[in-house]
Design brief:
- The protein has about 675 residues and is an alpha/beta fold.
- The protein is about 40% helix and about 15% strand.
- The chain contains 22 helices and 25 strands.
- The strands form 8 sheets. It has a 7-stranded mixed β-sheet. A 5-stranded parallel β-sheet has the order 5-8-11-1-12. The protein has a 3-stranded antiparallel β-sheet with strand order 3-2-4, with helices on one face.
- The structure holds adenosine-5'-triphosphate (ATP).
- Adenosine-5'-triphosphate (ATP) binds next to helix 4 and helix 14.
Length: about 675
C-alpha cells in the first residue's frame, strides 16, 4: 500500500500532461486545489489504539461501538483502499484530466467520481442563460456568467418586465377609460364601447406576453451548489445526456412558447466545471458517444431537439459550455466496446486505472474497515451502531469474501448491503446496538440470487440423485464450478472413449462443447503420454452432466476432464465421494483456480467426503465453521496425486498412479531443477 502519486499505468505523467487543443485545462489549473501529499494523505482512523492488540480483528481499536469512530468530512478520505485510483483521481482533478476506471462493480468508482467533484474549485462555477434571439427565433443566444449571477440577471429582467407591464397596464386603463367615456357619454354607444374596451384589454395582454418572453431562461443555476457539480449520466438517453428542446404544439399564432424557454440542459452541460460520471459507457449508443466526444473536444455543445419529428429539432442554440472532467467506468467489456475514438481521447489525454478487488489485511486496514461500517451506519441514518463483536464478524466476512489469504474484499457495496441488513434486523428488534448475531443472521438472509440458485441446484440434484456421492464409477468425476461471484455448484463430468470410425476427436454436445474441447486439448499431452492406445484413433465423448453454462470455465474443469478421460481410457473406477477443482498444465501440474472457498462449501453441502484443490489455493480457503467438519480438503500439486486420491480399487489404481508419475516425473524433475515458481490463478 503506498501513496506514491507516480503510477506506472496512469498516463500522461504529472510532468508531461500533453497539451490538448480541446482540453479543458488552463494554465494555473494546478494551483486550483491543494497539492499532492495533502490530497493523497491516507486519513488514519481517529480513535484510541491499543498497540498490543493490533493483531486483533479490530487492529487494536479500543472503541465500544461504531458510535466512537469519527468519520472524515471529505468523501475522498472515506474511500477504503483503492490508493492507486484515489491518487489518480486527485492528480486528474488537479490537472483537469479525464479518467477511465475499470473494475468490479461496487468497489467505489462512482464514490471516487463524486469525491473528485468535491475537490474541484467552486469558484470556477458558471451559470448559463439562454436568451431570445430577435434575428432568428430558432437560434437562441447563450450567455455564460459567474456562478450565482444568473439568478440576479433573471431577477433584474423580471423586475424590468414587471415595470414595463405596470406602465402598459396604466396606459391601457387610461385608454380604456377614454374609450368608454367617449362611447358612453358622447357617442351613446354603450355596446360598442364595451367591445372596444375588451379588444384593447386583449391587445395589451397579448403584447405583455412578448415582454415576459424576453426574460432569459436560466439553464444552469449554480447558486445553491456547495461543490462543483457531479452528474451521473449512466444509461442516459440522448436528451438527458446532450440536452433537448421541447416540442411546442402551438408553433405560431401568438400562443407559442418562445424557443429559448423550451431549451433543456443535458448532463454534459450540467456537469460544466465539474464531473460527468458514466458507468458502462459502452451502453451509450454510438451517436451519443460521438457527440460526447465532440463536447469533450470543443468544450461546448449546442442544444437541439433530439426528436426529429418534434418542433424542437428546428431549434439550435449557440454553443453551451461543457467543460467537464469525464470519469468513464465499467468492466473490461466496457473498455473494449467503447467507441474507439472516445477511448483514444481518454487514453491520450487522461488516465486509465484498474480498481483493486482486494487489499492486504493489516491492522491499519482493519481499523479502516471498522470505520467503513461506521460510515455506512451514518449514511443510512437509521441503523443502530455496531458493537465490537459485530464489527469483528464484519471484518471476518470481508476476509472471507476476498477469497485470498491475507486480504480483505474491496467489494464494499455488497459489504455495505450486509451492514444495512444486519442493522435492519437489529432495528426491527428495537435493539440499541447491532450485534454479532444480527450480522450472522444477515449473512444467512442476504444470499445473492446465484447463491439461492446454487443451493436450489444442489437440493434438486439430491432429489434426483444426480450428485452421486457414494460408490465408484468409471469415467465419472465430480467437478466443481462457481456461479456468479459467490456460489459454488457441483459439475459432474462424464467421459466415454470409443474407437473412432474416422479421425478421432472430442465429441461434446450443447453449449459446453467449446469448453470441453479446450479442456481436453489442455490435458491431451498428459493423456497421450499416459495411454498406450493411440487416442487420435478414438472418439472421446465428454458430457458436463445436467448443467447450464453458468460458472463453467474450461480451465478450472481441466483436472476433472483429465481424470474422467483417464478413468474411461483405463477403465479405472473413480470414487464418487470425492469432488475436485483445479487447472492442469500440459506437464501435469495442478494450477490454482478461483472461487475455491465457494466450491468447497458446495461440495460439503452436497455431501462429498473429500475435495481436491490445487495446493497453491490452500491459503485461499476460508470456509465457514459449519462446513469445516463436513469435508476433508486435499491440496494437490500434480495430476498423479489427483488420481491417487480419486481412483478406486487400490492395487490397479496404484499401478496407474505409478505409471503417471513415471511419465510426468521427468517433467517434474525438470521443473524442480529450474525452480519454477507457482503459477498465477486462472
Ligand atoms: N472503496 C470504498 N470505500 C468506501 N466505501 C465504498 C467503497 N466502494 C464502495 N463503497 C460503498 O459502496 C457504495 C457503492 O459504491 P460505488 O457506487 O462507488 O461503486 P461502483 O464501483 O461505482 O459500482 P458500479 O460500477 O456498480 O456503479 C458507495 O456509496 C459506498 O457506500
Amino acid at each position: 500500500m503506498s501513496n506514491d502519486t507516480d503510477t506506472d499505468d496512469a498516463f500522461p505523467t504529472e510532468h508531461d500532461p500533453d497539451p490538448d487543443p480541446g482540453s479543458n485545462s488552463e494554465p494555473g489549473d494546478d494551483e486550483s486545489i491543494p497539492l499532492g501529499e495533502e490530497l493523497g494523505s491516507d486519513v488514519e482512523i481517529e480513535a484510541e489504539i491499543d498497540e498490543d492488540a493490533e493483531d486483533g480483528l479490530l487492529g487494536g481499536l479500543t472503541i465500544e461501538s461504531t458510535a466512537d469512530i469519527e468519520i472524515p468530512d471529505r468523501l475522498v478520505d472515506q474511500v477504503i483502499g483503492q490508493d492507486h485510483a484515489r491518487d489518480v483521481v486527485m492528480k486528474a482533478a488537479k490537472q483537469r484530466r479525464h479518467v477511465m476506471m475499470i473494475g468490479t462493480p461496487g468497489t467505489g468508482k462512482s464514490m471516487l467520481a463524486k469525491a473528485m467533484s468535491q475537490l474541484l474549485p467552486k469558484e470556477d462555477l458558471q451559470d448559463v442563460l439562454v436568451y431570445h434571439n430577435p434575428d432568428d427565433g430558432n437560434e437562441p443566444k447563450v450567455r455564460t456568467v459567474p456562478g450565482g449571477k444568473g439568478q440576479q440577471i433573471i431577477e433584474a429582467h423580471k423586475e424590468e418586465a414587471q415595470k414595463r407591464n405596470q406602465m402598459r397596464q396604466f396606459l391601457m386603463w387610461i385608454i380604456i377609460a377614454i374609450v368608454l367615456g367617449y362611447s358612453f357619454l358622447i357617442a351613446g354607444q354603450i355596446l360598442l364601447g364595451g367591445v372596444l374596451a375588451v379588444l384593447i384589454y386583449l391587445a395589451f395582454k397579448y403584447s405583455s406576453r412578448s415582454t415576459d418572453a424576453m426574460i432569459p431562461n436560466l439553464l444552469i443555476d449554480s447558486s445553491d451548489t456547495q461543490t462543483a457539480p457531479f452528474k451521473d449520466a449512466t444509461g442516459a438517453h440522448a436528451g438527458a445526456l446532450l440536452g433537448d428542446v421541447r416540442h411546442d404544439p402551438f408553433q405560431s399564432g401568438g400562443m407559442e412558447t418562445p424557443s429559448h424557454d423550451r431549451v433543456e440542459s443535458g448532463a454534459i452541460h450540467e456537469a460544466n466545471k465539474g464531473v460527468l460520471f458514466i458507468d458502462e459507457i459502452n451502453t451509450l449508443d454510438i451517436r451519443s458517444q460521438q457527440k460526447l466526444m465532440t463536447a469533450i473536444q470543443e468544450g461546448e455543445f449546442s442544444i437541439t431537439g433530439q426528436s426529429e419529428r418534434s418542433s424542437g429539432a428546428m431549434v439550435q442554440t449557440e454553443p453551451v459550455p461543457t467543460d467537464f472532467i469525464m470519469i468513464a467506468a465499467g468492466n473490461l467489456d466496457a473498455m473494449e466496446n467503447m467507441h474507439p475514438a472516445l477511448r483514444n481521447r481518454v487514453k491520450g489525454y487522461g488516465y486509465e486505472v484498474y480498481m483493486d478487488d482486494t487489499i492486504e489485511d493489516d491492522p491499519e486496514m482493519r481499523r479502516k474497515y471498522a470505520r467503513f461500517v461506521a460510515q455506512e451506519v451514518d449514511k443510512d441514518g437509521r441503523l443502530p451502531h455496531f458493537t465490537r463483536e459485530a464489527l469483528e464478524e464484519m471484518i471476518l466476512e470481508a476476509r472471507r469474501r476476498a477469497g485470498r489469504k491475507g486480504h480483505l474484499t474491496l467489494e464494499m457495496r455488497s459489504l455495505g448491503g450486509l451492514v444495512r441488513v444486519a442493522g435492519d434486523i437489529a432495528r426491527a428488534e428495537d435493539k440499541e446496538f447491532t450485534e454479532r448475531e444480527d450480522v450472522l443472521q444477515a449473512k444467512r438472509r442476504s444470499r445473492s440470487i446465484e447463491q439461492q440458485l446454487a443451493d436450489n441446484y444442489i437440493e434438486r440434484r439430491k432429489d434426483y440423485e444426480l450428485s452421486v456421492s457414494q460408490g465408484d464409477v468409471v469415467g465419472r468425476v465430480n467437478g466443481l464450478a462457481v456461479m456468479g461471484d459467490d456460489s459454488g455448484i457441483v459439475l459432474p463430468v462424464m467421459a466415454e472413449v470409443t474407437p473412432s470410425q474416422g479421425p478421432g476427436g472430442v465429441i461434446a454436445t450443447g453449449k459446453l462443447q467449446e469448453i470441453a474441447e479446450e479442456a481436453v486439448q489442455n490435458v491431451s499431452a498428459i493423456i497421450k503420454k499416459f495411454s498406450d492406445e493411440n487416442i487420435s484413433e478414438k472418439d472421446i465423448h465428454i458430457q458436463f452432466v445436467q448443467t447450464g453454462q453458468q460458472g463453467v470455465d474450461g480451465d478450472s474443469a481441466s483436472i476433472t476432464v483429465a481424470a474422467a478421460v483417464i478413468s474411461a481410457l483405463e477403465n479405472a473406477p473413480v470414487k464418487q465421494n470425492v469432488a475436485m477443482t483445479g487447472s492442469l498444465s500440459v506437464r501435469g501440474d495442478v494450477l490454482p483456480v478461483g472461487g475455491v472457498t465457494h466450491k468447497i462449501e458446495a461440495a460439503a453441502k452436497t455431501g462429498y467426503d473429500k475435495v481436491i484443490i490445487p495446493k497453491a489455493n490452500e491459503q485461499d480457503v476460508m470456509i465457514e465453521d459449519e462446513y469445516e467438519d463436513m469435508i476433508e480438503i486435499v491440496p494437490v500439486s500434480h495430476i498423479s496425486e489427483v488420481l491417487e486420491v480419486a481412483l478406486a480399487g487400490e492395487g490397479e489404481a496404484d499401478g496407474l498412479v505409478d505409471r503417471l508419475k513415471s511419465i510426468t516425473g521427468q517433467a517434474l524433475e525438470r521443473q524442480v531443477g529450474q525452480g519454477t515458481g507457482s503459477p498465477s490463478p486462472q
